[in-house]
Structures are given as C-alpha cells and as structure tokens.
Input
Amino acid sequence: MTDQQHPCSGDASGRPASPAAISGRIALLTRHGKGALVEAPLAALGLDVRVTDAFDTDQLGTFSGEVARTLSPLDCARRKAQLACELTGLDLGLGSEGSFGGGPMAGFMNWDEELLLLWDRRSGREIVARAAGPVRVAAFIWESEPQLLTQLAPFPSAQGWIIRHPAGVSKGLCGAAAVLAELRTNVLPRSSADDTDPVRIEPDLRAMHCPERQAYIRQAAEQLAERLQTTCPHCAAPDFWPDRFEPGLPCADCDAPTALSLAAIRCCSACGHEEREPVAEKFAEPQYCSWCNP
Output
C-alpha cells in the first residue's frame, strides 16, 4: 500500500484483486548488518533475503547528524526497499528504518520504533511491520574516567559509542576500553581550556552497534512473517492485520467511553474486505476515564 492508496480499496470494478504471492528472493539494502537480524523468520517461510550494500544508506540521513534525515521513517524505509529492487533487479525489496523519540512517555523515556517495509515492485503493494519499545542508551557529558566507567557499566560491550568533541566525531567505539583509548589518544590531548563545547559521549545508534535496536528489528521481522501468513478470507492476500483500532472501551465505574480500544479492525488493502474484532477486555479501569480521572 502506498501513501496514495486508501487502506481498504479494491479495484475499480469492486471485485477482489488477485494478489501475487509473496515468494522467492527479497533484496535488502543495508550496510549496517541488518540481514542477519531479519533473515531467520523470513527463511522459515521459504523467503531468501539477499543483502546488497551497493548504495550508501547514510546518504539518506545519519543518526549522528553528519547528513540530515529529511525523509520520514516510513518514506525512508520505502526508498530503501525501492533502491534494493533497482540495484538487484529483484521484484521484492525490503527497507528497514529506525527512529528515536516520542513514545508513551516522551521526555522521560527514550523510545525506539523500527519499521520493516516489504515492497512488491510488480503490484506496488507494501507490507509494513513495526516494533517499538524503550531503550536505555542515552548521551552524557565527559567528566572523568571513574564517572565514565560508571556510566558505561550497565551496557553490553557490543554497544557502540560516539565521542563528539571540538575536533570532530569519533564513531563505532564498542565497550569502555575503546572509548577510554580514544579519549586518551585522540580527544583529550587536543582539548584546551579555551574549548567551550563539552566532550559528549553518545550511543552509536547504527544497527550493528546497538543491541537494543537489534532486538526490535528482530521483532519487526517476526511480525512481518506473521503478516505474510495472515491472509484475507475473501481474496487470500497477505497482511490481513489489525492495523486500525476503534476507541470507546467503557469505564468499569461509570460506563462512559474511554480512549482505549473497543475493537480492532482488520482490513485488506487488496480487495477492501474488513472484519471487526472486539477486544477481550469488557471494561477499562477508571484511571483511563476522563470523567472518573479528569
């Protein structure tokens, strides 16, 4: 499904479309080690992920700020999937993109959302899988070696770090020993009392250097495999998934509708068939009610 397509549209005649089966080889464009994260759940469906690095995806934006990220995460994943097809000649392309910020507690908790977009060049259809959750990694200011060791201690040695300092940026430093060596050798000797900008230690958020991201990318790949197996009962197209939700679950105390989901809506982007599925819960706790807990 593209941005121009209604999420529940059939063909012009109103008849169900005849979607092409999702099978064979899938091209994944990445220079950040994502192939190993997504291939297992797709291989279980007989899909062969072929990785290409023939395009530098950093040209589409970097987490560390050298290249501005001008595309939305969804548009960026779509562009990567299309490039993967163009570069390999395959009809199926897979784009992966992560973003940080937002989430249910914006400003209090760092949040990662990972998208996997599977694009079928033959039909133009898209299937988008998502996984999201909190991450612990955060930036801090260099103060001393003991303080640095304390700040890095909670994180695995596979987590990469960036040192941002007046002389430039050092990336891909995995583990406390690598960070300390870079500080002692290349950063602190170049610093002077006249430097007004502090030395910052930031997480390297590229997939190959961020284990927390890797976990969510794997979850997105697992959801993608589930979406491919969840077919429309009307036309057998994949991705008959509950992506829409109807609010209004009644409050357990006053019976007023709340913002919590009353039902999930499954919708087929190939033929337009919909099914409404009530949620298991009958009532919402009063804490979610704008009348009982204004």
User: Anything to note?
Assistant: The CA atoms of residues 32 and 206 lie 7 Å apart. The first strand starts at residue 25 and ends at 29. The radius of gyration is 23 Å.
